[in-house]
Each structure stands twice: as C-alpha cells, then as structure tokens.
Amino acid sequence: MGKYRIAVLPGDGIGKEVAKGAVEVLKAIGTRFDHHFEFVYGLIGGEAIDREGTPLPDETLQMCNESDAVLLGAVGGPKWDHNPPHLRPERGLLKIRKEMNLFANLRPVKFYDSLADSSPLKAEVVKDADLLIVRELTGGLYFGKPSERRIESGEEVVVDTLYYKREEMKRIIKTAFELAQKRNRKVTSVDKANVLESSRMWREIAEEVAKEFPDVELEHMLVDNAAMQLIRNPKQFDVLVTENMFGDILSDEASVLTGSLGMLPSASLSISGPSLYEPIHGSAPDIAGQNKANPLAMILSSAMMLRLSFGLHQEADAIEKAVQQVLAAGYRTADVAKNGKHVVSTTQMVEEIKARILDDSAIL
Ligand code: NAD
Ligand code: IPM
Ligand code: MN
C-alpha cells in the first residue's frame, strides 16, 4: 500500500468543480488499488486575494513544497481583472511555477476516436494525432524584467522583456529530446529565429543538444508556420518544444484537435522538488458554477501525476482507460457534445469515470 500526500489548489471558477472531480477519481483509485492518498487543500488565485490579500499565500507554497505532488484547478475571473498587477490571480500561478522551479510543462494532445465528430477539423486530419507540446514555463516574456510602463520624453511607453539564460533553454530542449526518445523520436523546435535574437540562440542550442541524441530527428519551424501546420496536418508532429508564450498559445490551438480545451491535461515538472499537475484551460467564467465544465483535462492531469510523480503506471492506465470507455459509451459534457445530444454534467461525468474504476470487470 502506497501513501501519498497531495496538495490540492482548486483556485477559481471551474477550477473548483474539476479539482473536486479529480479528487473523487483519485479516491476511487485509492480504493481499487489500495493506496492511501492524503489530500491537503490550499488557497491560490482570486479566492486567496479575497481571503488573504495575496494570490499565493506563503502557507500554500510551503504546503505544496511539503507534498509529494500538487494538483491545481485554475485561477482568474472578471472580478479581479482590473486589480493592480501584483493582486491578479494569474500572478499566483506564475509565482508558484517560479518558486517551485516548474520549468517543463508537458501538454500532451491525444485524439480520441470517439470524439472524431467533436472537432471542427475533418476526422481524417485529426484521427490518430498524438503529439506532445513541451513548453518552457519559468522564463521568457512572462518573467523578464523590466515589465513596466513609464514616461519617456513626456510620452507613455511600455516594455516587457524576453530574457533567458542559456542553461534555461538547454534544459527544456534536452527534456524534449529525452521525451522524444520514448515516443516517435522527432523533435520540432518552434521559434521565431527570423526576427528574435532569443530564438536564434534557442535554435543554436537545439542544434547542440541534438548532437547528444543521434537517434532523434530535429526540425526547426517558425512559430507562425507551426500554428498553421498544427491544424493543417497535426500528424506530422511528435514532440514540439518551445518558449513560454509560444507554448501557451500553440497548446490552446492544439486542443481543437481533441474537440475541446477541456480535454488537455498537463504536467509541470520541477527541477528537483514536487511537480504540479494542471489542466491547460482556465477558470471559464462563462460556464463557472453551472456544473457544465468538462472535468477530463483535470482528471487526465491526475493520471499524469500518478505516472510521472508516483510511478503508478497501472493506476494511471486505469484512469485513462476509464476516460476512453466513458467517451466510447457516448457520455459527453456540453463542450464536446455534438448538437447538444446526450449531454452530461460535470458531476455525472465524474460518476461514470469512478464507476468504471471501481468495477473489477470493466478495467485491466
Ligand atoms: P478559459 O480557458 O477559461 O476558457 C476559454 C473557453 O473555453 C471558454 O469558452 C470556456 O468556457 C471554455 N472551457 C475552458 N475549459 C473548459 C472545460 N473544462 N470544459 C468546458 N469548457 C471549457 O480561458 P479565458 O476565458 O481566456 O480565461 C478565463 C480566466 O481564466 C482568465 O482570468 C484567465 O487569466 C484564466 N486562465 C487561467 C488558467 C490557469 O489557471 N491555468 C489558464 C488559462 C486562463
Ligand atoms: C496557462 C494560462 C496561464 C499562462 C495564465 C493564466 C498565466 O494561460 O496555464 O496556460 O499563460 O501560462
Ligand atoms: Mn494558457
């Protein structure tokens, strides 16, 4: 019997709804496979601002650092959109990524046969697409200083800085090559080397790292072309590696292959400490509180946690199989339902997944 301490940060909006679903699914895994998961809860984002006056209280960070892994729902919402920068919910998310050294954000994009009709793209384009976006998460434009407005010669100007150390680029690119070795051995390094000096250094480092991985093919692609290729012919890709903001944008785009943003999980891996697992979507204020959100991105993130942080492969497989079976049986949250047919709520979807995990005859 394994014992694991999991920090849960539900956050705001649908973050709360999907985090609750993932915890229930993990409890079902604990029952089925005889593990003890201890869940400890912390504040982050808008709710933390309202209750503690800061988007990432110190107690939350300490609790996360003392856990075996962290599950995060989502942060943000219109209520805090006009707050000063240091009191925005998103600041809490950026801070926890930086403080916990979560440098590598793995965003797998997997096509499910039964959702072929849910994507606006043609089934023959998306069928069998299976790619992994490796997004740098603690550097680049999101963290460069200065990031400010100021007055220059009587005129208002603004500056955001794109800053990377060579080592920061090297470690994320290396991570992508290591992951590609376990997949289809192809890395597409995405940059804007025709314009940005940072991208020219990125490309140079990618070439250097590639020499250490002769079994992995490296290609370079400009980010604007990559955005187009992702929906024109996604099957050409295996692992894409890119800087923080490019990865943010391309992964939301890539979610369209699967039918919904609500399908994409992610793992934010730490250099040394505990890792964090979060869906790629946000707090979805337009559907929050309506029991409509697709919980699968969060549930699949918890499967990534079992696999990558705890080495519980059979247990992770059980969750992934349950998701596959529930979709194949026709259960759909509103975001992936075709013509609004057979729509289930967030909680019903969670119940269906749990039922399959707990049913001895259904899985394994
Ligand atoms: P969003 O991802 O919250 O929503 C975009 C669209 O996708 C919405 O129409 C939403 O209803 C839909 N959607 C997202 N997740 C879904 C799910 N699980 N099931 C069904 N539909 C889903 O992005 P946004 O609207 O641009 O941002 C809303 C807030 O969330 C902002 O405050 C933003 O900063 C924040 N945000 C947070 C995170 C995070 O915490 N990791 C990520 C992205 C955005
Ligand atoms: C994500 C989100 C965040 C990001 C925001 C909320 C800071 O969009 O996790 O993809 O841009 O990284
Ligand atoms: Mn994003």
3D structure, described in words:
This protein is α/β, with parallel strands linked by helices. The protein has 2 domains: 1-108 and 262-364, 3-Layer(aba) Sandwich (Isopropylmalate Dehydrogenase); 119-258, Isopropylmalate Dehydrogenase (3-Layer(aba) Sandwich). It has 12 helices and 12 strands. It has helices spanning 14-33, 46-52, 58-65, 89-99, 123-126, 166-181, 197-211, 223-232, 244-258, 296-308, 313-328, 346-358, and strands spanning 3-11, 36-41, 69-74, 104-110, 130-136, 144-152, 155-161, 186-191, 217-222, 239-242, 267-269, 275-277. A 10-stranded mixed sheet has the order 2-1-3-12-11-4-5-10-8-9, with helices on both faces. The protein has a two-stranded antiparallel sheet with strand order 6-7. Helix 8 packs parallel to helix 9 (244-258) and helix 11 (313-328) crosses helix 12. The radius of gyration is 20 Å and the shape is globular. The mean pLDDT is 97. The site of manganese (II) ion has 3 residues, from helix 9. It catalyses: (2R,3S)-3-isopropylmalate + NAD(+) = 4-methyl-2-oxopentanoate + CO2 + NADH.
The total strand number stands at 12
Bin the strand percentage. Answer: 15-25%
Radius of gyration: 20 Å
Low-confidence stretches: none
Distance between termini?
A: 19 Å
What is the second-level CATH architecture of the largest domain? 3-Layer(aba) Sandwich
The unique ligands bound to this protein are: nicotinamide-adenine-dinucleotide, 3-isopropylmalic acid, manganese (II) ion
What best-fitting shape do the alpha-carbon axes yield? Answer: globular
In CATH, what is the class of the largest domain? Answer: Alpha Beta
**Domain tally:** 2
Helix/strand/pairing category: alpha/beta
What order do the strands of the largest sheet run in, or round the barrel if closed? 2-1-3-12-11-4-5-10-8-9
